[in-house]
Amino acid sequence: MAEADCDWGVPPWRIDVAVPRAPRPVRADVAIVGAGFTGLATALACARHFASVHVFESGAVGAGASGRTGGIALEGTAAGPLPGADACLDALAALVREHAIECDLALPGCWIVRHAQGPAAPTAPCWPDADATWLVRERVEPGGALDPGKLVAGLASAALRAGVAIHEHARADAVLPGAPPRLAIGDRSVAADRIVLATNAFLPRFVPDAGIRPALTLALASAPLARATLEEIALGAMPFYTSDLPYLWGRATQSGRLVIGAGLAFDDAGRVERVAIGRADVQDVLARVAARIRGLHPALREVEITHAWGGPIAFREGGVPVLAEIAPGVAATGACAGHGVALSAAIAELLARWAGEGAALPAWGAVGGR
Ligand SMILES: Cc1cc2nc3c(=O)[nH]c(=O)nc-3n(C[C@H](O)[C@H](O)[C@H](O)COP(=O)(O)OP(=O)(O)OC[C@H]3O[C@@H](n4cnc5c(N)ncnc54)[C@H](O)[C@@H]3O)c2cc1C
User: Fold this and answer.
1) What would the pLDDT profile of 51-66 be if each residue is shown by its tens digit?
2) Do both 165 and 81 map to the same domain?
3) Is residue 156 part of a domain?
4) ipTM above 0.95, yes or no
5) Ligand 1 midpoint to CA 227 (Å)
6) Gap from CA of 248 to ligand 1 centroid (Å)
């Protein structure tokens, strides 16, 4: 099964971009694999330095995590701030501003909440959760939320305007070493001075020894709720995520939908494309998350759930994402866990400096022996 044919359900986001068919090159200055936030933002940044930038995507723009994410923008990485990834929210805001991308980006902060035990609500506002616990607000961290469909479509449109060629339904099969290295795509190959693999949960195809664990992570969206209801349940103003287990994250959209997620599903062989939304254990997780949503507040008891979906996510020991030159002229990135929305903007700048100015990538830990 190809990455493009996944049965992962339908998120509420709309990816509104028309990508014209572009002639397949035999030579490129920069070839990027993956048209998610990272690949597209990298292409845009590389277009400042190079005339010939090509993005190859096995499905359509946003087919991976970026078109299916929760869209909560957080600072740093799952392992905390790393060199070059300590101002990700600024990088995201600058990217959105520079290219005038209308994606409902708002950065009021993000609630970190935790579970408290006990029969009665400790302090208001708080929400009942699983196993007779309460979700209690702990602190606000920098962050916010956006519409990921609009962001990924806006990045693709901006990249096209900047002269980048995007090739949808073009799966890269392998990187062939050489000077320059080549990317094998079906029965053809493209030689490129710089190759960037921005395939996130699918990075093990190219870098099997990076210690990446891919999974499908799950989310639900409600029908739009009235502003007054969102205010009553105190979930409208800021996104939140739990600092403890059982994990839960959530945010409201501009149209008043609640988008709430939790839970992971795995494939034994690490092939996340083989995990289908209809699989019994996936349906069980979704039912549990739906029950948690309906239990959060009396106003949500009968709430209509309109969307249930999953998307690929990838983890690495200690939460450190992959960003490394894995062979001369070939960089790989991915495994941003639940931080890729803002982190991708910072990674794109680092990759563009590597490709365009010869700057070394920061040392985020060894990948594949390098
Ligand atoms: C349900 C869900 C909720 C999330 N919530 C949040 C959140 O609230 N905040 C946050 O910061 N992060 C969140 N994340 C994670 C975040 O979405 C990702 O870190 C981010 O989107 C990664 O972007 P990317 O461009 O690196 O990867 P992707 O968007 O996954 O892009 C990789 C692309 O590569 C393509 N591809 C793969 N293999 C090949 C190949 N061989 N050839 C060509 N193309 C290929 C894929 O089709 C895909 O389009 C969430 C993820 C999910 C799934």
Assistant:
1) 999 999 999 999 999 9
2) yes
3) yes
4) yes
5) 30
6) 19
